[in-house]
Each structure stands twice: as structure tokens, then as C-alpha cells.
Amino acid sequence: AKGPWTEKAAKLRQVITDVVPIDVHCSQPLAPDVLPPSGADCLVSCFCLESVSPDLPSFTRALGHTRKLLRPGGHLLLIGALGESYYFAGPGVRIPVVPLDEAQVCASLKESGYTLIRLEVYTLPPDMRVGRQWIIREQIENVLTLFF
Ligand SMILES: C[S@@+](CC[C@H](N)C(=O)[O-])C[C@H]1O[C@@H](n2cnc3c(N)ncnc32)[C@H](O)[C@@H]1O
Predict the structure, then answer these.
(1) Residues 6+ away with beta carbon under 8 Å from 94
(2) Tens-digit pLDDT profile for the chain (148 aa)?
């Protein structure tokens, strides 16, 4: 069915030139020839690191692995959720999420070598709480955005 997303999908297909697998738990998360030798100018991670890390050390390590993909002076835009304990990847498929607070995220960033440029923490408005995780964890619907 046609809708606003049809147009957005078409635009995206015009600008995305490749889709490659990544595993943030590997010390080399991408295949060696994917990025230029100097590294990426910018990386964006959206609701990924906390939702694929079983605990805080694993989250911190994933940040460190990601940093190695950036060129010196490159930027990471990290978007994630605070205080989640799991999300539903499908009916009955509950994926554990490391529940982070702001201080833990800042400490993990520092430990993995990032310089924090900007931090924004906000609460989702009720009409955006459509995902099950937001319904289940209404008390912790803070979303964290970090710019490096
Ligand atoms: C909660 S979803 C977020 C998806 C999307 N970015 C969004 O904002 O809706 C978490 C994503 O992490 C990806 N993922 C799972 N394990 C991963 C890993 N080891 N390394 C990198 N990404 C992983 C999954 O494929 C999934 O798309």
C-alpha cells in the first residue's frame, strides 16, 4: 500500500549505496575493506548498543569497538534508551537490554576514549510510546542522545 513511507523508502534507496553486516561485540566490528583506511567520518547508532549488550562491561566494550571504526576526530551520534531491561523483537521474543543510567553512559564513553560534545536526555511524549517496551516500562522512558 502507498503511504508516506513509500516515498521515504524510495528516497533512502537512492542514497544508500551498500548494506553491510556489523557486530559491535567483535573487536573488528566490520569487514576490513568496508571503510576507508582512515576510518569513518561519522557513525550513527540508534537503540542498538544497549539493546544488544547483556551487561555494562559489554556495552562499554561495544563502544570501544565502535570507536575504532572512526577516523581521528570522527563523530558518533549515539541514540539509545535509559533504564530499559528488555524489548520485544517479535511476539514473545524478549531481548534483554542493559538498563543504563546517564552517569553510567557518560562513564562508559569516557572509558572507551570518547569526548562528549553534547548530551541530551528527554522523555518521550505519550503519543510516541508506541513500542511495547515503552508501554511495559512507562517509568523509564528516557531517551538519550549523545553527540561526539
Ligand atoms: C532495538 S533494535 C534497533 C533497530 C533500529 N536501529 C531502530 O532504531 O529501530 C537493535 C538492533 O541491533 C541489531 N544488532 C543485534 N546484535 C547486534 C550486534 N552484535 N552488533 C550490531 N548490531 C546488532 C539488531 O539487528 C537490531 O536491528
Answers:
(1) 86, 87, 88
(2) 677 889 888 988 999 999 999 999 999 999 999 999 999 999 999 888 988 898 999 999 999 999 999 999 899 999 888 887 777 778 888 888 888 888 999 999 999 999 988 888 877 666 655 443 333 333 333 334 443 3
* ipTM for the whole complex: 0.96
Closest CA to 118 of 138, 146, 99: 146
Say how far apart CA 47 and CA 34 lie, in whole Å: 22
Domains within the chain, CATH numbers bracketed: 4-147 (3.40.50.150)
77 lines ligand 1 (CB under 6 A): no
Q: Global pTM?
A: 0.82
Which of 34, 43, 48 has the most ligand 1 atoms within 8 A of CB, as the residue to mutate? 48
User: Measuring from atom 10 of ligand 1, which residue has the nearest CA?
Assistant: 48
Ligand 1: which atom is nearest the Cα of residue 24? 20
